[in-house]
Amino acid sequence: MIEVRHIAKRFGSVHAVRDVDFVAPAGEVTGVLGPNGAGKTTAMRMISGLLRPDSGSVSIRGVDVHDAPFVARRQVGVLPDARGLYPRLTAREHLTYFGALHGVPDAALGERIAALSARLDMAGIIDRRVAGFSQGERMKVALARALVHDPPCVLLDEPTNGLDVMSTRSVRAMVRGLRDEGRCVVFSSHIMQEVAALCDRIVVVVGGRVAACGTAGELMEQTGTQDLEDAFVACIAPEAA
Predict the structure, then answer these.
(1) pTM for this model (two decimals)
(2) Strand, helix or coil at 146?
């Protein structure tokens, strides 16, 4: 479980996040949905521990991210918005390096890399340098890197951004698989169809605040609409005005 309690972040005069508050249970996919510039990525960075909130708190499986950052980070795998891969390293070297950083024993690391390579269909790229990889291939490496230490919680920041249809389908299948394994999955997106297809619950962020939270059915009921897209438009309308 990930608990986000009234986090806020300001950069100079810009309020990137004003008040984001929600709970993401284990065994569910929680989608953070909002228009570009809503504060989704900044919120995800605070949840992962990369940024310290100006106010509020984040806990991962009961561990405060900022009181015990190293303990909390071992509980979560992060796929950032910027994939952050090293072009001169191979896919296998990425996974070996990050597995070691997370303290995965050598005896287990090779087995995990082999399992992730098979799961993500990486056999053809596992020993190639990342330089020159397609967007889909880079995504596979970044996703495997996020999972190499077998975390119970996973944060995915716009995981299908820039991907083709087949790569997008692969990511969605992986997200469903992580949920079915009982993991807590949180991902941000501005793609309505993706959120509708994957999420057990949805957090709508507008202008750095949570405008609505609930299942797709609950959001439609709250806004008096008949589909999720209309519900989303109704949620962001006050901010747009």
Answers:
(1) 0.89
(2) helix
